[in-house]
Specification:
By secondary structure, this protein is of the alpha/beta class. It is 53% helix and 13% strand. The protein is built from 13 helices and 8 strands. Strands 3-2-1-4-5-6-7-8 form an 8-stranded mixed sheet. Helix 8 packs across helix 9, helix 11 runs parallel beside helix 13 and helix 12 packs antiparallel against helix 13. The longest helix is centred in the C-terminal third of the chain and has 26 residues. The protein is elongated and about 65 Å long.
Amino acid sequence: MPRKKITLGFIGAGRVGTGLASGFVRAGVNVVAIASRTIASAQKLAKRIRGARACAPQEVAERADIVFLTVPDDAIEAVASKVRWRAGSACVHCSGAADLDVLQKAVADGALAGGFHPLHMFGEAGEPPGALTGCAIALAGPDALVQRLALLARALGARPLRLPEGGRALYHAAANFSGAFVIALIHEAIALWGKLGIAQGDALAALLPLLRGTADNVEKLGAAGGLGSAIARGDAGTIRRHLDALGRDAPDSLELYRILSLRTIPLALAKGTLKPAAAKEITALLEKTILKSVD
């Protein structure tokens, strides 16, 4: 089905719904109906989408060929279950972790059930043009629907990613290591620098260029090739000083440092800058640290 002939609807007008609906309209896809928890939220988004009507969820299902459920994960099943779905239409959730069984009511009504999860952090005020370019979008559903969803993903400039059945939760958990957990690590670094009297704003300004440079290195050289650290250099003396400082000034961060350091050793060995003898010494140093903390 040509993308200009696909009509889309959205139930949920938050960050994801706003970002996707706006992106589809810019790509020339027809968004016809929008619903949300409040009519005011639906109207706010509909005003930005030419030709879209703010309405109740049932009307969205009646007007659109493909309905995206851009609601919180825990609400997907309840929202889908309250709608009477048209046979041949499609009900598509945008959760990264939920499987398609949460859409069983839509399937029972004769609709197709699918998943469309952009691997992207949406901003509060929607997305600027091209924000989803190069983004992976994890797809799920029967082949006929996945083909249409892949077409829609490409219309956004994104890369379709087909996951094996039952693999969405693992995919989504893994993605946290490259998304939310990175933010948690930045927060950890800011907190540690705070112990030295460095203000949060100054810490963030100093750390973000390092983060961007790290991401650039990984993009150019791969995970192992982009690695730079005391472990990559085999610098056991520096690691010992790190452990001593954390044990003294930030014991709550010691275990996190130890775990991440141990996970870094195989990368450093793969890069070739860490020699096996040095890897053995550093591993023993890190494992000795945890034994001390247990004692």
